[in-house]
Predict the 3D structure of the following.
Amino acid sequence: MSTATRGVEGGRGIERVESSRGFDQTIEQFEKLLADRGMTLFAKIDFTSDAKKSGLEMPRTLLLVFGNPRGGTPVMVAAPSSALDLPLKVLIANDADGKVWLSYNTPEYLAGRHDIPAELVKNIAGIRVLVQTAAAHGAANA
């Protein structure tokens, strides 16, 4: 997959991936990937729209909250505090230069933060492939 920039932000467990798509196309691709995988989109929070309603401006910023109870429930049962960070979330945002970024908490960070048993980390690890696939232009569904 060819994304221009990718990396984990300074020890905070946040991975950012630059999308090769436009803002709306990135959202559409991410939602399509969720649907293709039988995942549930629990919430879509449009921070830009909410700011505008309050008379404020900000770059386009949207949070998608998603998951699959079959994967998330065992994690929350084994590590109850993980419910603070589950379902999974991806932040899609434009920066000042108009680039589109997808950001998320890494599975490793969540595992360490909540003492998620190693055998259950796989239940949340798919977020990385979802983000990379949504960001890569012309990529086949992984």
Notes: The helical segments are 23-36, 47-53, 69-78, 107-114, 122-125, 127-135.
